[in-house]
Amino acid sequence: xxxxxxxxxxxxxxxxxxxxxxxxxxxxxxxxxxxxxxxxxxxxxxxxxxxxxxxxxxxxxxxxxxxxxxxxxxxxxxxxxxxxxxxxxxxxxxxxxxxxxxxxxxxxxxxxxxxxxxxxxxxxxxxxxxxxxxxxxxxxxxxxxxxxxxxxxxxxxxxxxxxxxxxxxxxxxxxxxxxxxxxxxxxxxxxxxxxxxxxxxxxxxxxxxxxxxxxxxxxxxxxxxxxxxxxxxxxxxxxxxxxxxxxxxxxxxxxxxxxxxx
Length: 262
Hints:
Elements: H1 29-50, E1 55-56, E2 59-60, H2 94-106, H3 109-118, H4 149-172, H5 178-195, H6 198-205, H7 215-229, H8 231-253
Helix pairs in contact: 1-3, 1-8, 2-4, 4-5, 5-8, 6-7
């Protein structure tokens, strides 16, 4: 008896929707809101890089912390007085910092889904026609670079620790201002988003076959899994909290908001 082998599905072909959409609801609302939200983060990030009002004791703007050069704009914003870049670096200090958490978010599994659908319409929504006829996944340049997300995680942990350190310094400072608690809330949300990352979940216990033999790692994995279940809301909350905290510090530095009542 001759056996027939079923044909392998075409890997490079998208599911074809013959009409513009089969949906009757407002399917376009989520991609639109996502596009506007992510665009606001990009626009603000560019402005924060250009703006030099990033420090006023005891507050350090999150988008410029820590400042690693000996430039005058970094005075008082360096971590333990550390300035490894020296005075040869003439570009805005934000360029040195935003690349690390920015790269972490850019390659994040949730953010990939968000901007693939909202910016590239790939796909915009289920049962909606898309402009792309082929799909190669993340196996080719430039999307294959997304695989470095696991390495950005370690840098993101360092940045989260620095933001926490800055928040603690603001809290112990006298007089205590509203900005101190804003920085604390931002640090908590940043750490929640960072440690809820899929890569962190894999690191804690992703390769274990027997949880009973590794109780500490199992507890860590359980905790990270709870954060991972909230990864999407934490991604949005931390994105807006870091923008809000950064803007708040800059407004205080510009004198728009008065300290110590800030």
